[in-house]
């Protein structure tokens, strides 16, 4: 490894350039500070400063006594849904049922008579601000401000960038939401898996991560993806008590299923927490293609988020905002949403009943479109067996944070009772064949 430079800036530039050109490979450990300082005739503090800048820039990771290692290249990212058509019955996409979403023509009724917004207009239209107050007032303090973003992941990314530096540790449920995992990796933060069970994140796992320097936490209060689990009342209280010890932690609550939820929202945000945001996307109820999420936060976090929005997209289209207002207030669309909610509850119950009849273990869930079936073996042979019988199901491996998760995620939004019985029978046969 031929590193050159006479000061910290030159060392930083030289190493970064060599990494970019592939001369220093991902995963390689840089020479010890003392060794490189002696080789170049520099003060050890000069080399240490260069290494610190590499870590801050996301080029390398500091690993204590193990040295400074060049960060691994970003892995090829798995995505939610799937672009290719398939002859298989889709239980893999994680999507809502298209038939329960409002038609675009219903939503565009909200922009009839509207004029175009110009530069300098308030980023949040007054009608949507009023809706935000109705949506959030029961679950947030009085000193709360509101924003709108291009979806929940957009809000999470902007919040992370507003408060964190490259290499900072971000807690994610393990197994966790694929898009959150991807965002943390792509932005150069260090994902830390927080164990999950049927009641939500495990307190001991969260406590250990916080004690190890966690800077931010992304938490799903209900309809956790991929398991479908929701926080129990007792678990939410436990988590809140733990978080009271860490008021400066950036706490992001992704309540993505709020529009269709039948279980109550369980708050975990301590009353005096300094940095928090409650994010509620309209994707599950009005459709993912709207790309809109509502954000409530404390005033300091609101200011930081506002700055990040202003330096990027500046505002979410006012036309989209008016469509969301219409979707959340129109009587006909609200009635459709209630029908969808009941249908998803029934579909979940049908699938759980079918699996129980076949003695197939699963995580009991209350919300969402997904059910988690744990496996005691690799998922790929099971997926192949199901595909041979006409089913497309998602491997749980991609949802793992600390290590690949052993399980299947079954998305049941379009599954009827008859097909649920057929799927459970086929899965039981596949599992028996693979013993």
Q: CATH architecture of the largest domain, please?
A: 3-Layer(aba) Sandwich
- Biggest sheet details: 8 strands, mixed
Counting DSSP H or I runs of 4 or more residues, the number of helices is 15
CATH class category name of the largest domain:
Alpha Beta
Strand content: 15-25%
Helix/strand order: HHHEEEHHEHEHEEHEHEEHEHHHEHEEH
Global mean pLDDT: 93
Strand order of the largest sheet: 4-11-10-9-8-5-6-7
Number of distinct beta strands: 14
Radius of gyration: 24 Å
What gross morphology would you assign? Answer: globular
CATH topology of the largest domain: Aspartate Aminotransferase, domain 2
Q: Determine the CATH superfamily of the largest domain.
A: Type I PLP-dependent aspartate aminotransferase-like (Major domain)
**Overall structural domain count:** 3
Organism: Alcaligenes aquatilis
Pfam families: Aminotran_1_2, GntR
Protein name: Aminotransferase class I/II-fold pyridoxal phosphate-dependent enzyme
Family: In the C-terminal section; belongs to the class-I pyridoxal-phosphate-dependent aminotransferase family.
């Amino acid at each position: 490894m031929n590193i050159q430079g006479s000061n910290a800036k030159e060392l930083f530039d030289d190493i970064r350039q060599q990494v970019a050109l592939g001369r220093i490979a991902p995963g390689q450990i840089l020479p010890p500070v003392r060794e490189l300082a002696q080789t170049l005739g520099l003060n050890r503090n000069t080399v240490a400063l260069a290494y610190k800048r590499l870590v801050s820039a996301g080029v390398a990771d500091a690993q204590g006594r193990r040295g400074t290692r060049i960060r691994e290249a970003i892995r090829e990212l798995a995505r939610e849904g799937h672009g290719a058509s398939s002859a298989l019955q889709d239980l893999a996409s994680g999507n809502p049922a298209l038939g329960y979403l409002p038609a675009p023509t219903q939503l565009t009724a909200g922009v009839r008579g509207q004029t175009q917004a110009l530069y300098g207009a308030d980023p949040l239209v007054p009608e949507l601000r009023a809706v935000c107050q109705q949506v959030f007032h029961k679950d947030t303090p009085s000193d709360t401000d509101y924003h709108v973003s291009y979806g929940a992941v957009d809000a999470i990314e902007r919040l992370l960038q507003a408060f964190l530096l490259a290499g900072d540790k971000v807690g994610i449920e393990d197994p966790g939401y694929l898009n959150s995992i991807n965002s943390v990796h792509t932005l150069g933060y260090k994902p830390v898996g927080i164990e999950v069970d049927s009641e939500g994140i495990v307190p001991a796992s969260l406590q250990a991560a916080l004690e190890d320097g966690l800077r931010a936490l992304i938490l799903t209060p209900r309809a956790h993806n991929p398991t479908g689990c929701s926080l129990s009342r007792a678990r939410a209280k436990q988590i809140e008590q733990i978080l009271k010890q860490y008021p400066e932690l950036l706490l992001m609550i992704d309540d993505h299923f709020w529009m269709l939820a039948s279980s109550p929202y369980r708050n975990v945000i301590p009353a005096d927490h300094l940095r928090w945001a409650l994010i509620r996307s309209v994707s599950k109820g009005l459709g993912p293609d709207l790309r809109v999420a509502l954000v409530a936060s404390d005033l300091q976090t609101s200011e930081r988020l506002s700055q990040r929005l202003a330096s990027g997209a500046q505002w979410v289209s006012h036309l989209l905002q008016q469509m969301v207002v219409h979707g959340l207030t129109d009587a006909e669309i609200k009635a459709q949403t209630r029908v969808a909610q009941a249908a998803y509850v029934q579909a979940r119950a049908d699938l759980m009943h079918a699996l129980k009849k076949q003695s197939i273990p699963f995580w009991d869930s209350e919300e969402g479109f997904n059910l988690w079936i744990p496996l005691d073996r690799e998922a790929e042979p099971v997926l192949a067996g199901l595909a041979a019988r006409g089913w497309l199901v998602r491997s749980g491996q991609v949802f793992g944070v600390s290590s690949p998760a052993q399980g299947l995620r079954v998305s049941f939004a379009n599954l009827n009772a008859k097909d649920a019985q057929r799927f459970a029978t086929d899965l039981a046969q596949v599992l028996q064949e693979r013993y």
